[in-house]
Design a protein that fits this description.
Shape: globular
Structural class: alpha+beta
Oligomer: single chain
Distance between the termini: 31 Å
Strand content: 15-25%
Largest sheet: 6 strands, antiparallel
CATH superfamily: GAF domain
CATH architecture: 2-Layer Sandwich
CATH topology: Beta-Lactamase
Number of domains: 1
Number of helices: 7
Order of helices and strands: HHEEEHEHHEEHH
Helix content: 25-40%
CATH class: Alpha Beta
């Protein structure tokens, strides 16, 4: 996917909100967010994760690259330390370059092999509770304040879909 090509619009937000309001299946909603995210933030890979606190893992609900990051795949929450600190506070996490990605992600070798050199994670929260995250994997220099804001908005639009997963 190339870097973003346009700004996030109210029409984008309304379209996704209407999908969730009309009880579209979750994968339809995830695909709609994937399309808008490609056009407004850019990504090489995009994933949506759900936190399963009881099992101590995050579970992949959506992946633009199911070969390398399949649906249902898990990662131990205990290995998500650097990004989790910010996201627990409801803040976006940015690893803007290879060094930051290597520091934050234990699976950085696989990440780098996919041409990813920057990661932007937006928390998905509801009523003070961590539900999951929307994860943008792109190239160094792609993500800044505008993309972080857009990611946070798109993540917020996934709250109804993630609530169905609990």
């Amino acid at each position: 996917m190339p870097k973003k090509s346009r700004l996030l619009t109210l029409e984008d937000v309304l379209h996704i909100e209407m999908l969730t309001a009309e009880k579209a299946d979750r994968q339809t909603v995830y695909k709609a967010v994937e399309k808008v995210a490609a056009e407004t933030c850019g990504w090489v890979m995009l994933t949506t994760l759900k936190y399963d606190e009881a099992a101590g893992v995050v579970v992949r609900l959506h992946s633009s690259n199911e070969k390398d990051y399949p649906l249902g795949g898990t990662k131990p929450i205990s290995k998500i330390t650097v990004s989790r600190q910010k996201m627990d506070k409801g803040e976006v996490f940015l690893a803007p370059d290879r060094a930051a990605v290597k520091e934050a992600f234990f699976d950085h070798d696989l990440i780098f092999s996919l041409g990813i050199s920057a990661i932007l994670n937006a928390p998905i929260r509801h009523a003070g509770r961590r539900l999951g995250s929307l994860n943008f994997c792109g190239e160094e220099g792609w993500y800044g304040e505008t993309e972080a804001r857009n990611a946070q908005i798109l993540g917020g639009l996934l709250i109804p879909s993630l609530l169905q997963e609990f």
